[in-house]
Amino acid sequence: MQKQTDREQSWVHMVDSIGNFLAPSMAKDHPNLPVTKAEGCYYYGVDGKEYLDFTSGIAVENVGHRHPKVVQAIKDSADHLIHGPSGVIIYESILRLAAELQKVLPPKLDNFFFANSGTEAIEGALKLAKYVTKRPYVVSFTGCFHGRSMGALSVTTSKSKYRKHLQPSWLSYQLPYALPEYLPEGADPDIFFADKLERDVKELFSHQVDSEEVACMIIEPILGEGGYIIPPASWLKKIREICDRHGILLIFDEVQTGFGRTGNWFAAQTFGVTPDIMAVAKGIGAGLPLSATIASKELMDQWPLGSHGTTFGGNPIACSAALASLEIIKEEQLLNNAQEMGAYAMAKLLSMKEEFPMIRDVRGVGLMIGIELGDPITGEASGEVVMDVLDKCLADGVLFYLCGNSGEVIRMIPPLTISKEQIDTGLDVLKTAIQTASH
Q1: Helix (H, G, I), strand (E, B) or coil at 148
Q2: Residue 50 phi/psi, 5° resolution?
Q3: Is the CB of residue 122 less than 8 Å from the CB of residue 215?
Q4: CA distances from 268 to 191, 320, 367 (A)
């Protein structure tokens, strides 16, 4: 074990008093691991241990922690500019980033409003849709997470606790997501969910809100914080069709799915469905705060100066890090690696599922994989079992994270640079933890 420096020892003592410094809503997440450094697919703890990171900083560090090219881009950028603000001044990195993003996005998504976080990107998307359509209402899908600021919270329904005491009201309605639990035994999901959506939409528009007053539908193309649910492509295509039919704009929240996570640049390409507006964040900035609301120039041109704004959005250093990240994904063929390593991990996990009844389901696309666990006695989905397994994995040096309405799903979202050997290491630890928890 490495000898701790005086600074590290002092810092460890501060961790014990974390409640005196930081709001519990910020500082009490799982697992509160004190670290001194991160590199590649690893965190390094103040305890001297190396921790294999299967969270990517919650789907942020897609090219790995502190990739040398990202670090160098940050240093080079800081030699010239630290702050914008964009619009008051203009600088190379923000223009180059917009040009490079156009090359990897679906057609016509070619105009950008850069901000700092996923929530800000969602707020921009909702505001843009309402502004250009001059319609007041938004339709979202139950179980989706879009952020915690008041506008984003009005369409966030992954957990009721996020909305408690806040009465978010941005004139929104919700439709059911394509959850596997709704599928009748023996039914074809491609047909069933598309038909169900038609019925649900008809009922909504007949009884609660006129379609002519709906500005947009917003959806996570893969349910993220709500449980890593992968819907049928036919269902997403039906949403696109319904939006076109009624003159409604379609927003994809690709905050978690973007930048290679699904094995394509974006889930829109994975499913073959192009939205009118896209919100991205997390993986775009290689760890620096950056996000974007993206639409066609035709839509963005209807959003005049002053209708939306930002002081810090599109920070020059963050844009430089994003440019480096895009280059790394291309040069190191990380889209291919996400597909190959994702398939490899899925095969191992499905084999594990056959061995352990505690594993209720394994589902994933690329390196966005959910492992749903149940109580070994009752078989019911269990957040308590997941926390027990996560703690056991952490003790053996592997960091996973959770999701799902009751925390019943382990999410496996390692950096896209992950190797077979690292997957083997992580899943061997997971297997041991599940085996122990099963008895």
Answers
A1: coil
A2: -100, 130
A3: no
A4: 20, 25, 16
Burial 5-16, CB ≥16 within 10 A → b, else e: eeebeeeeeeee
Measured CA to CA, the distance from residue 294 to residue 262 in angstroms comes to: 19
pTM here is: 0.95
Each residue's pLDDT expressed in tens, for the chain with a length of 439 residues: 445 566 666 666 666 666 677 887 777 788 989 999 999 999 999 889 999 999 999 999 999 999 999 999 999 999 999 999 999 999 999 999 999 999 999 999 999 999 999 999 999 999 999 999 999 999 999 999 999 998 899 999 988 888 888 777 668 999 999 999 999 999 999 999 999 999 999 999 999 999 999 999 999 999 999 999 999 999 999 999 999 999 999 999 999 999 999 999 999 999 999 999 999 999 999 999 999 999 999 999 999 998 999 999 999 999 999 999 999 999 999 999 999 999 999 999 999 999 999 999 999 999 999 999 999 888 899 999 999 999 999 999 999 999 999 999 999 999 999 999 999 999 999 999 999 998 7
Cβ-contact 177, 231 below 8 angstroms: yes
DSSP string, 277-295: EEEE-GGGGTTSS-EEEEE
Q: Which residues pair with 409 in a beta bridge?
A: 372, 403
Both structure tokens of 376: 């070994």
The dihedrals phi and psi of 176, each to the nearest 5 degrees, come to -70, 140
Contact 83, 243 (CB under 8 A): no
Neighbours of 300 (CB within 10 A): 17
Beta pairing partners, 37: 44
Between strands 111-115 and 50-53, the pairing is unpaired
Q: Are 236 and 273 in contact (CB under 8 A)?
A: yes
